[in-house]
Design goal:
By secondary structure, the protein is mainly alpha-helical. It contains four helices and no strands. The two termini are 15 Å apart.
Length: 78
């Protein structure tokens, strides 16, 4: 079993501490209170540190929620 999802859940929980696991796995920019541009930058940085990836600026447009980040990491993480 891949450890990507639990690690990504921890990243989201660090940035959005009020969310439980179900809310995190369903999280999208439009349905999470406080997910603004600063939160996006923070989330990307936390994810980059956790997974040892560098998320390209051009890829950020498609990363609008937990599931999109998970798919991205499945394709790009070591």
């Amino acid at each position: 079993m891949s450890d990507l999802e639990p690690r990504l859940v921890r990243c989201f929980a660090a940035v959005f501490p009020g969310l439980d696991r179900a809310a995190i796995t369903a999280a999208k920019r439009g349905n999470v209170r406080g997910w603004d541009s600063l939160a996006s930058i923070t989330l990307v940085r936390v994810i980059e540190e956790e997974f040892g990836v560098s998320i390209k600026l051009l890829d950020l447009d498609g990363l609008n929620g937990f599931q999109e980040f998970l798919k991205y990491l499945a394709a790009h993480a070591q």
